[in-house]
Amino acid sequence: MHSLKLFNKTIAALICTVFTAITLCPPEVVHSDTLLNLPAPGNMVLTTKAFEPARIQGMTIYPKDPFSFDFIINKGDDISMDNEEHLRAESMKMIKYFMASLTVPERDMWVNLS
Fold first, then answer.
1. Residue 14: inside a domain, yes or no?
2. Domain span at residue 67?
3. What is the pLDDT along the chain (114 residues), one digit of tens a residue?
4. Contacts by 67-76 with C-beta closer than 8 Å and gap 24+?
5. CA angle 43–45–48, rounded 5-degree value
């Protein structure tokens, strides 16, 4: 029991010493390196040109086979679309979203035109 009290007093004294040392000798100001090329505060920030993502430009429907489609994909400004595999994966994602939108009943559709 006596050793527990001594241990608690030692820990309390150590914590008080650390807090006092931190108060009397504050650490130096720490900041991260600038990762972004931001202008100085107060300077005007100019807008960048508009980014055009990849999108479905159009599609071809074959009257003899109504379940066969050819999709026309516009790569837009995304330079990663120059990679054939990435373009194919992104195109398939857009086509799947389009096909899923066809399965939604018209009475459940809602478009915000404001």
1. no
2. 55-105
3. 678 889 999 999 999 999 888 888 777 776 666 667 777 888 888 888 888 888 999 999 899 988 888 999 998 888 877 888 888 999 999 999 998 888 888 788 777 786
4. 71/95, 71/98, 76/51, 76/52
5. 160
> Is 48 a domain residue?
no
Structure tokens at 79: 């330079």
Residue at 94 is within a domain:
yes
Q: Is residue 11 in a domain? A: no
Helix or strand (DSSP H, E) at 16: helix 2-24
pTM for the whole structure: 0.51
User: How many structural domains are present in the chain?
Assistant: 1
Rounded CA-CA distance 97/90 in Å is 11
> How many CB atoms neighbour CB 90 within 10 A?
20
